[in-house]
Design goal:
Elements lengths: L2 H4 L5 H6 L7 H13 L7 E5 L5 H9 L6 E6 L4 H12 L1 H4 L2 E5 L16 E3 L14
Parallel strand pairs: 1-2, 1-4, 2-3
Helix pairs in contact: 4-5
């Protein structure tokens, strides 16, 4: 079995299974703790690495008072674009033009972004699932 076959995050059913994780009390606590150290400022550009259902994307937007220049929500599963679209609708019209979804697998390397594109990067649980180096 190759690495691509072992990565279930690319399966639509797997991605959708995590769309309601924010309802779990431990996840809500993790989100509160993450919020306590995030400091998005008006006009900044942020990357939500492994965005999943967009909980951190929405949190960044709310913490900035809706004044971020852009949030790039990156995930290896294209179905999560649907989840980010739902987040955009909940946040309202101003967010629609400033939150964008990008498909990319950061285990294989990030898509090319220009140097100093982002003022901040956040990743929740996704970063612990990244696969680096050869698998045993």
């Amino acid at each position: 079995m190759n690495e691509r076959e072992m990565n279930h995050w690319r399966e639509e059913a797997c991605a959708r299974a995590f769309w309601d994780q924010h309802l779990a009390l431990p996840y809500q606590e993790l989100l509160r703790h993450t919020a306590s150290w995030l400091t998005p400022q008006p006009g900044e550009h942020w990357l939500d690495l492994g965005c999943g259902s967009g909980q951190l994307t929405g949190l960044l937007w709310r913490l900035s008072g809706g004044r971020l220049a852009e949030i790039v929500s990156l995930d290896c599963n294209p179905v999560n674009a649907e989840a980010i679209a739902r987040v955009q609708r909940r946040l309202g019209e101003p967010a629609a033009g400033r939150i964008r979804f990008v498909t990319g697998d950061f285990s294989a390397g990030l898509p090319q972004f220009a140097d100093e594109t982002f003022d901040g990067i956040v990743s929740g649980l996704a970063i612990s699932y990244a696969v680096y180096g050869p698998r045993l």
